[in-house]
TrEMBL record, chain A:
Highest taxon in the source lineage: Bacteria
Domain 4Fe-4S ferredoxin-type: residue ranges: 28-58
InterPro entries on file: 4Fe4S_Fe-S-bd, DPD_II, FAD/NAD-bd_sf, FAD/NAD-binding_dom, Helical_ferredxn
PANTHER family per UniProt: GLUTAMATE SYNTHASE [NADPH] SMALL CHAIN, GLUTAMATE SYNTHASE [NADPH] SMALL CHAIN-RELATED
Pfam families to which the protein is assigned, alphabetical: Fer4_20, Pyr_redox_2
UniProt name for this protein: NAD(P)-dependent oxidoreductase
From TrEMBL, chain B:
A Pfam family matched in the record: DHO_dh
InterPro entries reported in the protein's UniProt record: 4Fe4S_Fe-S-bd, 4Fe4S_Fe_S_CS, Aldolase_TIM, Dihydroorotate_DH_cat
Name of this chain's protein: dihydrouracil dehydrogenase (NAD(+))
Molecular function terms, GO-annotated: dihydropyrimidine dehydrogenase (NAD+) activity
Family statement drawn from the similarity comment of this UniProt entry: Belongs to the dihydropyrimidine dehydrogenase family.
Length: 449, 427
């Protein structure tokens, strides 16, 4: 009998399970940590950050008690510095390159210090940015995730007016719907967006979906430039027997339900949960089901640890949360009763001449809920999408985010820019594209004059 | 096992670690605890004539540095704020309980002979081992013509020391103020007056910090502040130099020195002692961490002595004094170059930017368009700035490259006042 139900844990336990996993440092702890920074020259941590935040500079400002300066240093390089402080896999970014690894095996906690400095802004509400004089240009941004909003903010700083369209009822993209609840506690995503929009000249229009009630040719006509940052709305399928059974869900949808729930106790979760995949999403879905009260959560990944796109720290976090991580295994089929999944059959895997093959050895696990987290995919837009040149299922762009269409830029997860599908990469893309748009618009208007 | 017994200007103590005259030695309660913890001696908080002094609150300010609290401490306290008779009775009682420990009584009375005569006989009567003349307190008492106000006038130092030696058989330490231009002048005055020893340094005139909201110096007493006396780890280099200057002064030969100023560890103590101090006195470190720190001071010094083969304190006291010299006798032929151990280097770039911006452009920042820090020997002048900024011990080391000859400034061609070279006489 399948066992999926809400309210496995009481409200108090759930509140504790979903509260901030890394609360901001106490002032004294922040000072001690800031003192560990060596103030490197041409610092490797800054190089490793996709938005190139000047890490030693902001840490020095924390040390001298200049929190406003520290926050400005961060947010002028990355307007989502607050979100990034919470969600960046720092072990493979800034902290991964910190020279203190070689000195005492322990990097400076850059993320925690960044959070300390940026929390100051959201607590004090101090404005840090001004707009340049109005340029007279109007830019459309499609997608209000980190890429789109970072682009909009930079454009507004440069003096342009921006309209941001988003299909969802709320702005924020995966910051609002996707990031694990305990990484972005206390409605931080919306606080950060409110602050971002307070610069002015940015209008957000929700419920507007490109390809449905919004079309590219019209945008090109009505606006001086268009920025596409629509993320990857689709989900890859398993192509496995039984995938259509009830109880088999997309991990991102499950997470979105948790993020949007007004009562965590209202979110149904299985007693036995199996998550399939090896990235952020898989880890987050596994840990969140466990914290919702699932008794046994198994994470199944078809290759080894080093192949996973989840960072080593995230995998360690999953294990700390009691997730049973099974590597070198893949689902063969899903079995059920009355249309409801109740068993998963797994098969061992092995590399053979660089190809992943099944070993033929199979075993089954009882399961009430299967969460698919094998990657996000481009969601076809219909005719609007066909206007764009694509590479590997993403919008093809140059380094500045310029697409094959004149006057149209793209960035974030939906485009080929950057090395990672991460929040910080989306922000870097958005900001870079904004500067490219600004330069192009100003150059065109000079040429026309 | 090394013998830490300290023989100093006629005073004997089981070890050279003494508590300086200050709040830690204010009364019997503290001093008993200090002796229990193992301190070899105590200089009792400065006594004065009744009516006793009165203190304000607050009294301390501190410098924080690099996450360290109390890198330096500043105080505006006066001498004891308890009646003379109470202090004297406690001194007598404590000395009886701890006959093997040094108990020295610090004194400060106005500059007149009768007052000194009076207080000296009272102190002698307690059984204390010695007196220390507080000519150093730079705040409050100096406004009343005592403390540093006396210490800054060599004639007064000599005169009062002479009175003390005249009216008392007790060994007399003269505690010097650093708030002067040349500490040797004060030491010479004490020596001429017959002092058995000098102790230094007392605190340095200072404003430790300013409260930018109150617009007043710290510590603030109801919105106003006054300069205080600075002490703690930050003043150690100043104190070491003053100790060394006196130790190598031909005009005060063999004058025992009790070293004070920022002593926090056995290593600090060893440095003072090799520069000529026969004992050390501690205040701030005890105020920061409590009396228990003496345990490592004793243990650490003894272990170090054992490792060096020093059996007694005299085996190393003053050992570094002959190596303190005038600049003009330094070997100008000595030449060292920095070297970076590439395996140890963590690539922080601090050496590069220090040398590039402020020194001699002698460290690269890349090689084959990769981050790489290496010394360009031709440009290196051997200043060793890079070695000091490098966060990794032993990563940057200095290597000698000269031919081992000696030549100093006294005969250097650029020296307008150079001494003529000694030509072999053409006999
Ligand atoms: C479950 C999960 C957890 C993650 N955890 C982390 C993490 O911990 N750390 C990290 O750095 N990264 C994490 N990521 C990745 C990170 O969230 C993304 O890389 C980042 O959000 C990409 O930003 P974006 O602006 O490109 O796209 P998105 O955040 O996806 O935003 C796209 C926006 O476009 C809108 N949109 C989509 N289609 C249309 C359309 N046709 N018309 C109009 N609007 C449209 C959407 O509603 C959305 O608001 C996670 C991702 C997932 C899925
Ligand atoms: C290497 C060095 C050389 C200095 N040379 C001079 C000098 O030539 N002339 C001078 O007036 N002060 C000189 N100073 C003193 C500084 O100007 C300054 O007064 C002193 O270092 C105190 O300031 P600080 O605590 O910020 O270092 C020198 C200091 C250093 C560190
Ligand atoms: S690499 Fe580490 S120590 Fe160096 S500046 Fe960055 S955070 Fe500081
Ligand atoms: S010793 Fe001085 S000159 Fe030589 S490399 Fe180091 S900083 Fe530069
Ligand atoms: S300061 Fe030291 S660790 Fe840093 S780059 Fe130079 S040699 Fe390497």
């Amino acid at each position: 009998m399948s066992d999926i139900k809400p309210g496995r844990l009481d409200d108090i336990t759930l509140a504790a399970h979903f509260s901030d996993i890394a609360p901001t440092l106490a002032p004294s702890a922040a000072l001690v940590e800031a003192d560990r920074c060596l103030y490197c020259y041409d610092a490797p941590c800054t190089q490793a950050c996709p938005t190139h935040i000047d890490v030693p500079a902001f840490i020095l400002k924390i040390k001298t008690g200049n929190l406003k300066g520290a926050a400005s240093e961060i947010l002028s390089a990355n307007i989502f510095g607050g979100a990034c402080a919470r969600v960046c896999p720092t072990d493979i970014l800034c902290e991964g390159s910190c020279v203190r690894h070689k000195l005492d095996d322990q990097p400076v906690q850059i993320g925690a210090l960044q959070r300390y400095a940026t929390d100051w802004v959201y607590e004090s509400g101090q404005p840090l940015f001004e707009r340049k004089p109005d340029s007279g240009f109007l830019v459309a941004v499609v997608g209000a995730g980190p890429a789109g909003l970072a682009c909009a903010h930079t454009l507004a700083r440069e003096g342009h007016k921006v309209v941001v369209f988003d299909a969802h009822p709320k702005a924020g993209g995966l910051n609002e719907y996707g990031i694990a609840a305990y990484k972005m506690a206390d409605d931080f995503a919306q606080k950060e967006i409110d602050y971002l929009l307070s610069i002015g000249n940015i209008t957000v229009r929700t419920g507007m979906r490109l390809g449905a009630n919004l079309h590219l040719p019209q945008l090109q006509q009505d606006f001086d430039a268009v920025y596409l940052a629509i993320g990857l709305g689709g989900v890859k399928t398993l192509n496995t027997e039984g995938e259509q059974l009830a109880g088999v869900l997309n991990a991102v949808d499950f997470i979105a339900t948790i993020r949007q729930a007004s009562q965590l106790a209202s979110v149904p979760v299985g007693r036995n949960v199996v998550v399939i995949g090896g990235g952020n999403t898989a880890v987050d879905a596994a840990v969140q089901s466990k914290r919702l009260g699932a008794e046994h959560v198994t994470l199944v990944y078809r290759r080894g640890e080093e192949d996973m796109s989840a960072s080593p720290e995230e995998l360690a976090f999953a294990r700390q949360n009691g997730i049973d991580v099974r590597l070198w295994a893949r689902p063969n089929r899903l079995l059920g009763e009355h249309g409801q999944v109740n068993t998963i059959e797994l098969e061992g895997t092995v590399y053979c001449d660089d190809r992943l093959l099944g070993t033929g050895t199979t075993y089954t696990l009882p399961v009430d809920m299967v969460l698919k987290a094998i990657g996000q995919a481009w969601l076809p837009l219909g005719p609007d999408g066909e206007l764009l040149e694509m590479t590997d299922g993403k919008i093809a762009t140059d380094d500045n985010g310029h697409t094959s269409l004149p006057g149209v830029w793209a960035g974030g997860d939906c485009s080929t820019t950057g090395q990672f599908d991460l929040t910080v990469q989306a922000v870097a893309d958005g900001q870079r594209a904004a500067l490219s748009i600004d330069q192009t618009l100003r150059a065109n208007s000079r040429a026309a004059a | 096992m090394a013998d830490l017994t300290c023989h100093f200007a006629g005073i004997t103590a089981p070890n050279p670690f003494w508590l300086a005259s200050a709040p830690p030695t204010d009364k019997a309660y503290n001093v008993n605890r200090a002796y229990e913890a193992g301190w070899g001696g105590v200089v009792w908080k400065t006594l004065g004539l009744d009516p006793h002094a009165v203190n304000v609150s607050s009294r301390y300010g501190a410098t924080r540095w690099g996450g360290q609290r109390i890198a330096g401490l500043n105080n505006i306290e006066l001498i004891t704020d308890r009646p003379l008779a109470v202090n004297l009775a406690e001194i007598r009682e404590v000395k009886k309980l701890w006959p093997d420990r040094a108990l020295i009584v610090s004194l400060m009375v106005p500059c007149n002979e009768q007052d000194w005569k009076t207080i000296l006989s009272m102190v002698e009567d307690t059984g204390a081992d010695a007196v220390e003349l507080n000519f150093g307190c730079p705040h409050g008492m100096s406004e009343r013509g005592m403390g540093a106000a006396v210490g800054q006038v060599p004639e007064y130092v000599e005169m009062v020391t002479r009175w003390v030696k005249h009216y008392s058989r007790l060994p007399c330490l003269v505690k010097l103020t650093p708030n002067i231009t040349d500490v040797r002048i004060s030491a010479r005055a004490a020596y001429k007056g017959g002092a058995d020893a000098v102790s230094l340094i007392n605190t340095i005139n200072s404003i430790v910090a300013v409260d930018l909201d109150l617009m007043a110096p710290l510590p603030s007493v109801d919105g106003k502040g006054t300069h205080g006396g600075y002490c703690g780890p930050a003043v150690k280099p100043i104190a070491l130099n003053m100790v060394a200057e006196i130790a190598r002064d031909q005009e005060t030969p063999n004058l025992p020195i009790s070293g004070i100023g920022g002593v926090s560890t056995w290593r600090d103590a060893a440095e003072f002692m090799v520069l000529g101090a026969g004992s050390v006195q501690v205040c701030t470190a005890a105020m920061h961490y409590g009396f228990r720190i003496v345990e490592d001071m004793k243990d650490g010094l003894a272990n170090w002595m054992d490792s060096q083969g020093y059996g007694r304190l005299d085996d190393f006291i003053g050992r570094a004094v002959p190596n303190v010299t005038d600049w003009k006798y330094l070997n100008m032929n000595y030449d060292i170059k920095a070297h970076i151990d590439q395996d140890a280097c963590i690539q922080c770039g601090l050496c590069h930017i220090a040398c590039e911006d402020t020194s001699h452009q002698a460290i690269t920042r890349e090689k084959d368009s990769k981050r790489h820090f290496e010394v360009i020997e031709e440009n290196c002048v051997g200043c060793n700035l890079c070695m000091h900024v490098c966060p990794v011990d032993q990563c940057i080391t200095m290597h000698r490259v000269d031919d081992g000859l000696y030549a100093n400034w006294t005969t250097h061609p650029n020296n307008p006042a150079r001494e003529p070279e000694q030509k072999p006489s053409a006999a």
